[in-house]
Amino acid sequence: MSSRPDSDVRVRFAPSPTGWLHVGGARTAYFNWLFARQHGGRFVVRIEDTDVARSTDESEKGVLDDLAWLGLDHDEGPDRGGPLGPYRQSERLDLYRERADWLVAQGLAYPCFCTDAELELRRAAARAAGRPPHYDGTCRGLSLDERAGLARAGRPASIRFRVEPEDWTLEDAVRGTVRFPAGMVGDFVLLRSSGLPTYNFACVVDDAGMRISHVIRAEEHLPNTARQLMLYRAVAVAPPRFAHVPLILNSDRSKMSKRSGEVAVAVGDWRRAGYVPDALLSYLALLGFHPGDDREILSRAEMLESFTLERVGRSGSVFDPAKLGWVNAHYLHHASGEQLEAWGAAFLPRALASVEPARRAALLQGVRGNLATLADLPSELGPFVEETVTLDPDARAALEPETARTLCGTLAVELEGLAQWSGDAVKSAIQSVGRRLALKGSALFQPVRAALTGRVHGPELPLVAELVGRDRCVARLRNASRRSPG
Ligand code: GLU
């Protein structure tokens, strides 16, 4: 794939606003975004809201908000406008009606007056007789007079596409050659009697009208692609290049969905649990895309370098939350303070707002090594932003021995008298008190850490001292030295 800017590249992400953004959807959106950005093309978001009963504004907002959180900015869409809109299918109903009427006028589609009840009966009969439950063609051969008569009688009509008995072949950018044998698909509905289009029809009208050059979407739509290829020929538009991306699976290799409920499937759940957007994107991308080497984390910039549709695998991949956790921790452990502050805005303790920016960044960077998720920020930052510390059970145990309390009292005096307050100076002071009291290793460092932070794990002690500041260090050591045992 060349990286030459090619403004003819137009891709789209087309969510149905009937729920939240699924991790599979996020990956599809990411692949589309990468492809658009690599080629200097346009990334379009189209809202497929023709399922009026299930579509909600709230869902549309949630999906757009999650996409923005992931940093997958789009160039055209319902919230951004663009030259080939509107970008919400519910605002394009006239267009579907007009195209459907045109297809009828060409003899490529026909009005169908069969009712749902009639269709269901015939489908059941076909199944019972071992035939495919395709439309039986009742309205296919109606004369113009017959149609007019039924319409006059008040029978509502859908518009059905006339499928010719023909084999179809798709050259898919991921799956290679895919064959759809004749007879796989019966005459299908384009426009329901309610005037609402079916997915396949609206999709082709829109992908053609929005001049989509590449359709990168989930593999579950592959059977739809046969119908869509027929429709492209009917409307005399060259089809886009298709790339069907395999599914994301549960550990039992079933499709990962809300219903299976094993692992969180909503991007929002991972977001609220304190996962970093870049970590989620890197993890999801590598669930389908093989970089060709053994890298396990690829940044957005690296993906922009490496991504090609040809390197997307053909089989589904199992979602492993432990691996995602590992990627997330990697991002957290290597982030700058400023980056953590931006990612962690929703998690930061209120007290942090009054800390000046440089110190805030130092604090965040100081605790980053102990973060598994951003949700750990309040507890990790607590010792540094709260006035007093609360000892956890391990810290209490570390301060139990008489020697630990003597150590804290002696160190308090020493720190109070330091000519200059710095991490290094504190380190030397701890070592010199240790020598005096014949304490070293964990007998020396654990009680100090426990007194200063209320816990026995955390950033390096010199950094802790710098972050906590002299006055609070001295006060905390004094407190610890005065604790009664037990
Ligand atoms: N609205 C469809 C979905 O959410 C889009 C399918 C497509 O990309 O064509 O699955």
TrEMBL record:
GO molecular function, one term: zinc ion binding
Domain of life of the organism encoding this protein: Bacteria
Primary localization class, coarse: cytoplasm
Keywords for this protein: Aminoacyl-tRNA synthetase, ATP-binding, Cytoplasm, Ligase, Nucleotide-binding, Protein biosynthesis
Residue interval(s) of motif 'HIGH' region: 15-25
Any Gene Ontology CC annotation: cytosol
Domain Glutamyl/glutaminyl-tRNA synthetase class Ib catalytic: 9-326
Motif ('KMSKS' region): 255-259
Enzyme class: ligase
Coiled-coil residues: none
Residues annotated to bind ATP: K258
Protein's GO biological process: glutamyl-tRNA aminoacylation
Positions of the Aminoacyl-tRNA synthetase class I anticodon-binding domain: 355-480
EC number assigned by the record: 6.1.1.17
Alphabetized Pfam families for the sequence: Anticodon_2 (PF19269), tRNA-synt_1c (PF00749)
PROSITE patterns associated with the record: AA_TRNA_LIGASE_I
Localization per Swiss-Prot or TrEMBL: Cytoplasm
Swiss-Prot/TrEMBL catalytic activity: tRNA(Glu) + L-glutamate + ATP = L-glutamyl-tRNA(Glu) + AMP + diphosphate
Quaternary structure (record): Monomer.
Function as written in the Swiss-Prot or TrEMBL entry: Catalyzes the attachment of glutamate to tRNA(Glu) in a two-step reaction: glutamate is first activated by ATP to form Glu-AMP and then transferred to the acceptor end of tRNA(Glu).
Family the entry assigns: Belongs to the class-I aminoacyl-tRNA synthetase family. Glutamate--tRNA ligase type 1 subfamily.
Protein name: Glutamate--tRNA ligase
